Amino acid sequence: MKALVTGATGFVGFHVARRLREEGVRVSALVRNGSDRKALDALGVEIVAGDVRDYDSVYRALEGCGRLYHLAADYRLWVPDPDTMYEINVQGTKNVMEAARRRGVERVVYTSTVGALTARPDGVPADEATPAGMGEMVGHYKRSKFIAEQEVRGYIAKGLPVVIVNPSTPVGTMDRRPTPTGKMIVDFLNGRMPAFLDTGLNFVDVEDVAEGHRLAAEQGRVGERYILGNRNLTLKEFFGMLGKAAGRKAPGVRLPYLPVLIAAYADEAISRLIPGRCPRIPLAGVRMARKYMFFDVSKAVRELAMPRRPVEEAIAKAVDWFTNNGYVKAGRA
Hints:
Rossmann fold; seven-stranded parallel β-sheet; three-stranded mixed β-sheet
């Protein structure tokens, strides 16, 4: 069996490619020119130059592939020009689905996000069937992924055998860019996280997310979505675990929402005036924090046998990896 993985140079995509290689799968990766390929080369992954925004390159990359894992996405909480995000997340997904349909791919796993779902107003963890609409999508990332998932459902209706997975908040090694969650860990390790907002997320080991992708291809039902997550934690609980793993004191100050929101608006306004500057306080992230993004992961556990390693172990692995790979300033490690 040969499989194409898009987004394999990213955090989750790399782990999916590695897990497939461990199972003996021949893996091709669609990689843009100029991207760092060294980690994929070490896995024995076949590199195919291309871009999800270029339909022809996707179609060529799918030659001989029975399976497709589409993970490529622009995942940022702030973008100065959102058009690129929609080109990658929406049009890129349409290109990939159309190429898979024309190639006759036997199984597609599409990586959405819990961001395309919504938290329940009663505080009960949301599941795959919790209603969500565009009006509840905060920020361009969530909106673009929500639209992209609707496009995927259109291809499912046309007969394309797609299983949708919605990862929650992955934590672990090889978060090279890093992701917004990884940046939060790095900021803590560098002493730049003195306080926190009162919110909550569902955290999961990135290696379990990778295995969830593999299981979705093997056992997932076409047309269904599966939340790939593990444990619901408040940020206070998360930073407590992070502090224990790093041997440091967790931040003890809980910030009120309104002043942080005002600061985020000001920070974003400054970033729009200074080319190349990214906000230290992403507005979309602050607005998302108004709700506890807690999720019920029982469907993936029940139908896919989704593994759930302790989140504490994933946090410890992330701390070690960031510390040993130059993300922590001298004197902080």
